[in-house]
Amino acid sequence: MDKLKINEEEWEKLQNVLISMIPRYDEINSKMTFGRDKKWRKLIAKESFNKNIAMEVGSGIGTLAIALKAKNIICIDPSEEANKIAKIRIENLRKINKEFNERNYKFITSSAENIPLNDNYVDIAYCSFSFRDFKDKIKSMKEIYRVLKNPENGKEGGKLIILDLAKHENFYGKFIYSYIKHIAPKLTNSDAPKMLAETYKAFGTPHYYAKIMNDIGFKKTNIKFLNFHTIFILQAEK
After folding, report:
1. What would the pLDDT profile of 86-127 be if each residue is shown by its tens digit?
2. What predicted TM-score, i.e. pTM, was given to this entire model?
C-alpha cells in the first residue's frame, strides 16, 4: 500500500472492513468527527445545485448522495450491498420528502478505476472520504477526468471535488494517524478505524495529488483545509 496504489490483497481486506461498517457507517463517521462530517458534506453538496448530472465515486450507503442537488445523481461503488442500502434510503426518503421525487438516482456497482459511463458526460464528480481507498488513484483520476464534461462554448468544464482526511508529512500527520489508530476505535467501539489508519499512513498530501491532477489535465486545482487542517477539500476542473 502506497500513495498511488493498494495491492489486491490489501484492497480485498479494506473492502471487507468497509462492508463490515455498512450497518454503522454514519454512526462511526459521526463519532470519529464529533458530528462535523455532516457539515462538510453539506458544504460540498452545494456545488451540485443547478447541475444536470452529478456523480459520486465511492458513494457507499449514499450519505453524500442524499445531500446532492443535481437533477440526475449517479452513485458508483464497488460494493453491491452498499448500493442496495443507498437505494433503500433514497426510496424511503421519496415517501416523506417531495424534493427527492424530482431527482433521478442511478446506482452502479463498479470500481473507480473502471467507470461505465461515456466520455464527456458528467457535470460534477465527488469523492467523499473514498479517494483514500481507491485501488489505483492515477487510473481513477484519469477515469473521472474522462467522464467529466469538456469545456465548450465558453462554458467551464466538469468539476471534481474530493473531501478526505488531510495527510501531513510531519508531526501533525503522526498525531492524526495516532488518533485514528488508537483513539477512534474506542470512541466508535469498532476496530474499523484501525484499518482506515493504515490507508491514511500510506496516503499522500493534498498537494501531492493536486500536482498529479494537473499532469493529467485538470485545471484550476484548489485546496481548502477544514477542522484545524485535519480535513481537506480538493477541487479541480476539466
Report:
1. 999 999 999 999 888 889 999 999 999 999 999 999 999 999
2. 0.96
End-to-end C-alpha distance for the chain, whole angstroms: 28
Q: Which three cell numbers stand for residue 63?
A: 450519505
* Contact (Cβ atoms closer than 8 angstroms) between residue 157 and residue 121: no
Read off the C-alpha cell for 191.
476496530
State the architecture of 8-167+204-237 in CATH terms.
3-Layer(aba) Sandwich (3.40)
Q: Which helix (H) or strand (E) holds 75?
A: strand 72-77
Cell of 233: 477539500
C-alpha cell at 197: 489508519
All three cell numbers of 168, joined, read 501531513
Residue 130, classed as helix, strand or coil, is coil
Q: Which three cell numbers stand for residue 164?
A: 478526505
- Give the separation between CA 125 and CA 75, rounded to whole angstroms: 10
